[in-house]
Amino acid sequence: MESENNIVDISKRDIAKLISNVENNKFDCLQDIRRQYFKKGHAFIIGITGPPGVGKSTLINRLITEFRRENLRVALLAVDPSSNITGGAILGDRLRMTRHILDEDVFTRSVATRGHLGGLSKIVPEAIQILDVGGYDIILVETIGVGQDEIEVSNFVHTVVLVLVPGMGDEIQAVKSGIMEIANILVFNKADRFEIGKHNDEFTVMGISNYSDAPKQKYKKLFKTSAKDGTGVKELVEEILNHRALFVDTGEFKRKKNDQLRVFFDSILKEAVTKKIMGLIIKDASYSEVLAEILQGKLDTYSAAEKLIKEHLFFEL
Amino acid sequence: MESENNIVDISKRDIAKLISNVENNKFDCLQDIRRQYFKKGHAFIIGITGPPGVGKSTLINRLITEFRRENLRVALLAVDPSSNITGGAILGDRLRMTRHILDEDVFTRSVATRGHLGGLSKIVPEAIQILDVGGYDIILVETIGVGQDEIEVSNFVHTVVLVLVPGMGDEIQAVKSGIMEIANILVFNKADRFEIGKHNDEFTVMGISNYSDAPKQKYKKLFKTSAKDGTGVKELVEEILNHRALFVDTGEFKRKKNDQLRVFFDSILKEAVTKKIMGLIIKDASYSEVLAEILQGKLDTYSAAEKLIKEHLFFEL
Is the pTM of this model over 0.80? Predict the structure, then answer.
């Protein structure tokens, strides 16, 4: 499959700068991106999740190599829940060490989501939008764990790949956290380490198979890979690309993009309206008067807001 | 010092329920709390932070015992950055095991902040407000780490106690993350484990002493405690209560409360206004028309918002 966005008018450097702005809650610079996104927006977005230690990084490197063989441009967005102060750079450093660093058609980046206004659900979709407009065909969104972040990310991606290692008890953790239910493709990595019939492998696979019958699952496949020697990676990529084709054919791709456009539209409106109206309210004398009453202990905050809104904005709280 | 709020009209159970509501983004139930807070609001709020493994829990148990000896009612709010799905209950379980479980005048609770709209900065001040109205004289806000959460919490508390263990390299981590600068009281716990003059102790204390000269520091004291045998805990509590007296005397307490009242007032206004105006916009035919143009690929989200606002709300984006 050929790349659909051969013309790229945004440099890697500009993309990195735009994502940094988003991390810092600066959205004004996104005007051009928003103008282009509604026309473009071709990328297939893949969430990759799983507990630490299952070999996600190695697997992701292998996946990128496979996607590049298909002449697809790939972006990797690593969601970093650590703070921007203490740990934000660690994951970034790791990313920069990938073997694809010199490939012009591969972009890797970590985004710090903790301590930011709106957190993950505000930053990740904007970053995806930027990468999409940047002409990447495949966007991998990596999260490290099986928790709330993973559930949130699943709202913004087209398919979720859950990576586990058999016999490590990961499955139980994943089942408990609800990740199993949002996963579309299950990968058992480090397949070289275990043999069929041993190490509870059959039991594990059976356990998983039961999950594929769950009513919430529209689409679920099970893969065994060895990121170390590359076993199963080609088949996994074929499956992902099949999933993409199915997504486009069924109109699911378009539906998901429309949902996202509406979320973006509402959020721009909301921010503009709130900023404008709050600016007007705070400048008005009545605001200072009511605030003074609060600080003098005459009015509580709720009654004060009630009063201000009723008398000056003519609606009821 | 005697408890200032002997009359308590909210049960522990009601407080727990109100905090749960806040965790679930339900703020309507806070009307009564807001009405009472501006009159009450007497609690002294102490942030307690430090890396895992420094013995914070044991120290907090000791602190609670000491505060109770002074006849002060104590609430412990543990900020839990783990998801509400995977780990929220773990910290909660630990809390419930404290020796103060049967004391009617001690309230302990963990709040899950991750994955919530607005996160920590929305939930923690509201929870503090509830506990304050609930009649607790001392509110301990525990965070587990030296990162962004700790910096955020420092905005809502009166004093920050940073707990470290000498020779563990914690200080360097704390310095790097900026926690040292926001700490008002430094505690070296596990003092029983080291002797003066050994284990780089003098060096460590010197390093810390230098920090107390930093211009940002208005108030900084250094304590050595042993949570295990109780050494130094009484002195630490005396210092905290001195800090409280100073805070009230200098008017800093009142100033901080006023700041918080304004934040609450603005946030009630903002929420009400946004809800109202967005409700009106979305119901209007022009919203659907412009949204349709986006979905048909005629308009991008930014231009669409610009158009809607200019034509219907008569201001410029």
Answer: no
